[in-house]
Each structure stands twice: as structure tokens, then as C-alpha cells.
Amino acid sequence: MSDAFPQDVSLESPPIRQSEKGRLTSERILDAAEEAFGENGFEGTKLRDVATRVGIRIPSLYNHFDSKEALYAAVLERGIAPLLRTLVESAVDRGAHGNPEDIVEQTVELLAERPALPRLVLHETLDGGRHLRQLLQAWLGPLLSQAEKLVAEGPAANRWDPDQLPHLVLAMYNIVVGYFAMAPLYRDLNGTDLLSREALVRQIDVLRKLSALLFGPDPR
Amino acid sequence: MSDAFPQDVSLESPPIRQSEKGRLTSERILDAAEEAFGENGFEGTKLRDVATRVGIRIPSLYNHFDSKEALYAAVLERGIAPLLRTLVESAVDRGAHGNPEDIVEQTVELLAERPALPRLVLHETLDGGRHLRQLLQAWLGPLLSQAEKLVAEGPAANRWDPDQLPHLVLAMYNIVVGYFAMAPLYRDLNGTDLLSREALVRQIDVLRKLSALLFGPDPR
Amino acid sequence: MSDAFPQDVSLESPPIRQSEKGRLTSERILDAAEEAFGENGFEGTKLRDVATRVGIRIPSLYNHFDSKEALYAAVLERGIAPLLRTLVESAVDRGAHGNPEDIVEQTVELLAERPALPRLVLHETLDGGRHLRQLLQAWLGPLLSQAEKLVAEGPAANRWDPDQLPHLVLAMYNIVVGYFAMAPLYRDLNGTDLLSREALVRQIDVLRKLSALLFGPDPR
Amino acid sequence: MSDAFPQDVSLESPPIRQSEKGRLTSERILDAAEEAFGENGFEGTKLRDVATRVGIRIPSLYNHFDSKEALYAAVLERGIAPLLRTLVESAVDRGAHGNPEDIVEQTVELLAERPALPRLVLHETLDGGRHLRQLLQAWLGPLLSQAEKLVAEGPAANRWDPDQLPHLVLAMYNIVVGYFAMAPLYRDLNGTDLLSREALVRQIDVLRKLSALLFGPDPR
DNA sequence: GATGAATGAGGATTCATTCAT
DNA sequence: AATGAATGAATCCTCATTCAT
Questions:
Q1: What's D36's DSSP letter?
Q2: Lowest mean pLDDT segment, chosen from A24-28, C32-36, D216-220
Q3: Protein chain C, residues 40-69, with a C-beta closer than 7 Å to any atom of nucleic acid strand F
Q4: CA distance B178 to B192
Q5: pLDDT per position as a tens digit, A112-134
Q6: pTM over 0.70
């Protein structure tokens, strides 16, 4: 149970898998599960669905993962941890001279490669983050404080109240993550594919402009 | 099944319930269901949970609603339709001279009164909007075209490409809705209650500033 | 889980059931379960078996008992508790002047009416008494100490070492319980039905003689 | 299935195992299985448990035994057959001048060396002796008739009705076997280890006394 | 001889739903 | 209007067994 989600989140490289063939099946399961969990969340995802996507039977899943929870944890770990690692490094390392716009763009590019992840994160968020809490704590903390520093030392320092910074960070977070969450429905309603290259470029452009407006030098 | 979600969405007032006592129970069920669905989504919500919140047994729910789907539809109908109605009216009626900032503020105030609703909407969004499609279609269309008009005729016309307008609307949408979606987790991680009056005021303030930056007259 | 086996074992009368019809089904389930658990133990008993004996479907069991464990606990409680109550009362109340032979006979008569019970107890004993522990503790303690007193104050005091008393009690226990445990197999191997009236009378007779030999006045 | 338990039970020495290394593994498997089956019975024992005790993986068991049934049969064969052989020989060979007390003592000593066996037998008894039937038939028959003879020709002849003899044998059987069955639970409830040397000596002592009382010369 | 992977069969349990009361 | 009882369908999971390596 609780073992599936260890207290200390490893932001290090994922462990090496056993045999080549075993690695492949595990990997395929993780891929399928990432998709499924991304689409339907934890509760909404049925192992039957995952197994079908992989092309195996349900019990075979248990040769690779101890439980649905453990599978979910593995998906989160594999998907989110590297993402967070990248972001945190990017944010922390580049420090105050890092360009907020670049971080946002980088994030969008990362998420665009695996759009199931932001949906997964949003599902988790709505579910109270039972499984993601530690990942988020390791993430939000640095990000928020970094954002504070960025703005406090940046050219927009005088434009925002320190109390408002968390709201700004949340806003950017929600814009970025929500964009991917909306994509399938949007396409369904509208015919427009938000995940197309052009749409992504446009989104990045908007985000750049937004970042500039929010955090850039006062245009006046 | 499909009957529960008729093609034409009534944006009119909800129908009056049967007897006085029945109406009350129905209302209490709707309240409980709104909470439950908001917290756990459609799949994640169990009728047992709803019944428990109401203080009745599961089969009694069926004296008021034909099915879980119908209950869900009723919750959406009761919760979202008035919201959309207000927004659409507000956006359309006030027309080009309507202030975008006011619409945003109004929306936040409306959602703050029933924070389960935005979570509900987000759940639906992630689930592919199976039940919300018509509502959203009736909503997004007017909103988007109205937003186009607003910007095209507004002072920020030269600042945004028409292609970027949907992205901007999505962005605002995600900021507003995501804020409420994050609230419980945020409180859990952080201790800060995003639904407190002060936080809401701050959020509205940030949104006003944002609207001004995005849509207001060029500050240069 | 743990709730199914509360710490304090009520040796009091069983609670009154709800409706008459509900009582009947619950009772029939308990009867079927007592049989099944008696025949196959906890692990070996399948809910399908119980449900079939009752003539209902498996999920219906859950309208009456929360889980297999809870059902098992209820069977033990209903079956063993009254038995223990009777025995303990009998042993304690009649005190030192109580006749050991009478207690043994009474026990056999009680068990003969519901031969699944001793088998149940033996199953539990072999399984480590996970569920019976409290019952046994409440039982063995008084019985052993009472037995000590009986013998210490009785005419056979000089015949047995105090250290040997627990062995004697165990022996009597095993004779009584084992007799019923063996019955089905014995019949199968031998054609003799140990549960027939004649056999039971003979067994009681043997037990009386045995008691006399063990605890009675020195025949020399 | 049925093949695993041939009709004619070989009371002869167990067959020699294949290779030296294989023999060792087989033996270790049998040891582990004897323990496991003794603790949990046939149904309650999982191959995973056996494999874990041996330190191998489940499929490896199948290099040594064709099925769980076959493994169980082998355990019974290896454990019970020699025991029965010894007992039967002892009972039959020594004939009427054999001392009943010695047989009982010998049995206790044999069982004390591998206390899993009596538990195994009891499990089998409760399960209807599906696998043990032939062994028991080969055993109980001689034992019973021998017992008859012993008593009929012995000094207690006038003390027992011939009809009561099976009850006496059963009683002795249940005392002896039940003692071991109770041991783990007793230790758990009581702290006293019935398998300690002292306890065993005491038990043998009690059994001797009992035998004397039951079958010995009339003390009057 | 050992084992990773796969799986059919089956087990306990949950859940939405129905129905008689 | 409320509910105890019943249930088909589906879920997660376990287990003995097989097979290729």
C-alpha cells in the first residue's frame, strides 16, 4: 500500500530494468498505463484497458507490477520525476538571470512530447494529490521561491505585490497544464488540434508574450 | 443513457420539483452530489457517498433521479447552466463596451460561492466532456467569438494575432478554473487557503491586472 | 478488518435482528456458513459455496455481512460464544462440587446438536486461532483454573501433579472435539456413524468412565 | 489428478531421488512443504510460500513435482507412511504382550521429531481425508483390531465393552494428535511451549498413566 | 535445473440498479 | 417517499500451471 509511494521521492535517474525482453514489456505497460491514466485518471482507468493496450492479459500485469497502485506510482515516477528534475534544475541553476520565458517554453516542449503527463498531473490534482503530494512538494516549493526571487530581482519587481506571486505562478501553471488538459475536448468541440505543431508554436508564442508582459521590463 | 443528456441544452431556469418535501430532498441530493462529483468526478463518486451525505439510503436516490447519469446531468444543469447563462448574457449584452475585467471578476465571484462547480467542470473536461459537451458548445462558441470581437475592436487589437485569441481565452479559462481546482491540494501542501476572502480578493486583483495587460490599452 | 473481531468478546446474548425477513436470511446465511466453515475451514470455504447453500447469489451475502471475515466472526460468535457461556457457567457456578463428568457429558450433548462447531473450532485451532483467540482466552483461562481447583480439591488430588493438569484438560478437550472432527472421515472409512445416537451414548459412557478414572476417587 | 494418489499405498521405503543435487533440492522442497502444509493445510498452503521457504521460484518446484497435489502426496508419503509402518509393525509384531503404553510413548516421540506431521494429519482429517484415505485405511484397520485384541486379552478386558474399544482408540489418537495440533496456539495463548522437552516428558508421563488406567490391570 | 513471462480459472468485493414492501 | 434485499456486471487480485529460454 503505502510502500508504493515512498516518502522520499527520487529525482534521480530511473533504475535499470532486468532483462531486455522484460524491460520491453514493463516499458510497454508503463506506456499504456501512462496513456490510460492520463485519459481517465486512477479510478477511471481499468486494468483491463491497460492490458488490452499492451496486448496481454490482466494477470500478466502482475508479473511486472505489484498492484494498480504500484503501477500508477511507477508511471508517475517515470513520467513526472524527470520532468520535475529538468524544471527544477532549469529554474534553480539558471538562477536569477534565467529567462522565465525560456523555462515556460521548455516546459511546454517537454509536455508536448508526452501530453498524457499534464493530464495525469491534473487528474492527480483533482484527486487531492494522494500520490503526487511528495513530487509536488519537491516541485512547488523550489518553483515558488524561485519565482519570488526572479520577480523580486527582476524588472517587474515593482509591478507585483509579493503576496500576488503565488497567484502568478499558479496562473502560469494552470495555463500550461490546462492547455494540454483541454486539448482532446477542444478538438472534439472545435476541430482544432491544440497539439498540432502550429498550435503549440502559437501557444508558446502567447506564453512568451504573456511572460514578457508579466515579468518583463515595464513597457512604459 | 443518452436520454439523460438531451441534445438541446436548456439554459433556462431549472424545473420546479414535485412536492415540497420532495423538492427539499431533491435539493439536498443535488447539493450532496455537487460536492461529491466536484471532489471525485463522475467515476470516482459512489452513490453510497451521495446517499450518506444526504442521510438517506441509496435506493431512495432513485425516487428523485432515474440514474447516476441523470443525477450528474441534473447537477451540471443546475450548477453550470445558470453560470453559463450569466456569463453569456454578460458577455453578449454588454457587447464591445463590456469590460473584460468585469466579466472575469464576476466569474470568479460566482465560482467562489460554489467552488465545487469549477472542479466539476475540470473533471468533465478531463473525462472528455461526455456530459458537458452541449453546455460547452453553447458556451465556448459565443465566448470565443465575443472575445474576438472584444479584442478586434478593443485597444489591444494590434497586440494579438487573431489566431492567438483562442489561446488567450483558454488561458483565462484555465487560470480561473484551475485556481479553484488547485485550492484543496494547495491548502494541503501549503497551509494557504485559496478560497479565503483575502486570497480571492488577491486573485481577482491579479486577474484584473492581467486582463488589463492583455486586453487593455497599450501601456506604452 | 480488525473491527470484525472486537477485543472484548461478548459472552452475552446475541443482539436482536432487524426485520423478521431479514433475520431469517441472516440466520440462513449463518447456518450455511457454519456448515461450510465447519467442513472446509476459513480458507477452504468459498462464498460461492455459502451462497449456493442459502440459495442466493454471492453479492447478496454482502447485504448481511460486511465481508467473509465478518461472516466468519459472526458464525464463531453465534456458535461458540453460547457454548463457552454455558460451559463457563457450568464449570464456575457449580464450583468444586460440580461433577466433571457432568460437564463433559453436557459438552458432548451440546456439540452433538451442531457438529459443525467442533470442527470449526479445530479448524481455527490449526489455523492459529486468528479469530478465536479471544474466545479461547476467555474460555481456557477459567476452564484451566477451574480444572485445577476441581482436581486439587477433589479426590484425585494425590494422583496428579499440578503440572500435569493442563495436559489432562487438553486431553479431555482433544477427545471431545476430535471425536466430532473425525466423524465424517470415520464414517467414510468405516461405515460407522459416530454421530448416531447409539455412538454418542457410547462416547458419553466412555467419557464418564474416563472422567471417573481420571478425577474420581481412587478406586484402590 | 487422481493419479497422484494411487490406490495401493506403498508402505515401503521412499524411492531414491535422481541426481545428487536434485535430490537435495527435492528434499528441501519436501521439508518446506511439510512445514507449510502442516501449518496451513492443503488449501491454505500456497506454492509461493513453499518456494520462498526453499529459496527458489515457483516454477522450479515443477522440476521436482508434477503438481501441488503430487507434492502434497509426496509429503504425506514421506512423512506418514514410515510413521504408520513403524506403528503398525510395533503394534502387530509385539502382539498381545506388547505394552500399549510403549506404543503410545513411541508414537509421541516419533511425532515430536516432526511436529508438522500430526498437524498435517489433522488437516487431512478435517478435509475429509481425500488424500489420506488409503493410508488411514491401512492403518486404522490393523490398529483397531489390534487394540481389540490387546484389550480383549489384556487385564482390562472386563472393564470395557467391545463396542467401546473404537472410542478408546479414537480417544488416544485424538489426545496424541491433538496435543501437537494445539501446540502453536497454546504457546500463543499461554506462553507455554508444549513442544519443549519438559512438556513432552510430562505429556508422555500423563499418557503412560492414562494407558495404565485404561488398559492396565485393575487397580482395585 | 532454474526462471521470467504469460495466462485460465476463480475468489472476494463493489456498485448501480431493481423491486417488493 | 423510503428502504431491505437481491443481483448482473465488472473490478482488482491470487494462484497453479505452462513454456521458452
A1: H
A2: D216-220
A3: 56-60, 62-64
A4: 16
A5: 999 999 999 999 989 888 888 87
A6: yes
